[in-house]
Specification:
alpha/beta; Aspartate Aminotransferase, domain 1; Aspartate Aminotransferase, domain 2; seven-stranded mixed β-sheet; four-stranded mixed β-sheet; 13 helices; 38% helix; 14% strand
Length: 430
Amino acid sequence: MKEAAKLDISKSLELYEEATTLVPGGTLYARKPDEFIPGEYPIFFESGRGCRIIDVDGNEFIDFLCGYGPILLGHREKEVDDAVIRQITEKGLCLTFTQRCQNQLAARLHELIPCSEKSLFLKTGSDATTASIRIARAYTDRIKVVRYGYLGWHDWAIELKGGIPEKLYEDVYDFCYNDLDGLEALMRKHGDQTAAIIMTPVAHPTHRRMEAPLPGFLEGVRKIADRFGAVLVFDEIRTNFRLSTGGAQKLYGVSPDLCVLGKGMANGYAISAVTGKADVMMAAARDIFISATFFPNSDGMVAALKTLEILERDNVVENLWEKGGRFLQKIQALMDQYDSGAELSGFPPMFFITFRREKGGLHIRRQEAFYTRLIRKGIFMSPHHHSYLCYRHSEEDLNLTLQAIEEALADLLEKYGPYHLPAAACAGRV
């Protein structure tokens, strides 16, 4: 098969060289060239509209990263942007005291999300997960935390421990997703001192396939939390408003005590929230300090209100499931046709194409070749992070993507042959 032409990313590389003299590492961690495929992916973008993005060299891509998730509707969504512009120009956004949109947004979350009785608004997902732990510790008067998943960059949560004293995470314990026995064992050991069990309700790790909860898993976690008196926290930063307007908790019928929200709630504007049961949330009013200059800013709240209005009015989540379902069925059919080790996981609104492990690390070469061809054909997905659908992905966009995926899978089969058996014991959780 004819090789796809390499992109001209010379301006991106030039800006990156300049950035390394001004910014440590040139970019933030998740946007480093090494997190993609160095020399193939652009490093600087210029603009976005709908589901398309354009880099500084003029290359245009169909965007499946969506800003790592916040772009739920589309880039530069006019109704949302217009609402924010009106707020800024007619009322202002940083007024020391609170504007009424706080109450309006909290009321909307109460209507939409099963566990939501009271809400607290912040700016980032890490703000929200950390605030939820502080609330849980104050409510229970306990210290320890049992956790699963990526929960932000703060000291207690991040897996990379550089620059973090051990004493700041010595009371935090990890458990494996879909492993009730492992969680039970941890709680038998630490349960009477555990303030919170915090987890993503679906598994969406980097580098590995996504997982849905096994039957009874989330119900089992809920029962364990209740038995030991721990606050159950769902990190719904990625799942809420994308899998359901009520989140994974509504989709699976298991309500936590607290949940944290962000990303798609405001279609790219900076806002996050901790929401949950009133008695637990009241610890934030009585016993702890959670405050920051920009937390009450109204731009994100107004953007969230307009985004939620559009989600409901235009049946956005249903649209994501319907078109995403058809899209994933076609991807799976291509994978069945071209047996090159690719596998599909996740859900119609958020999914991941990974490669099954092979002898000699052949899967790594397949993965790099696959995603290299996609980016050269104008499809922006990450080899190490799951993809997102947004409302503005059209059938034409998805068909162009399917064509690129088919070419990439066929190319893998031609270059490397069919999938080989994996080396022994190369899979498993880490």
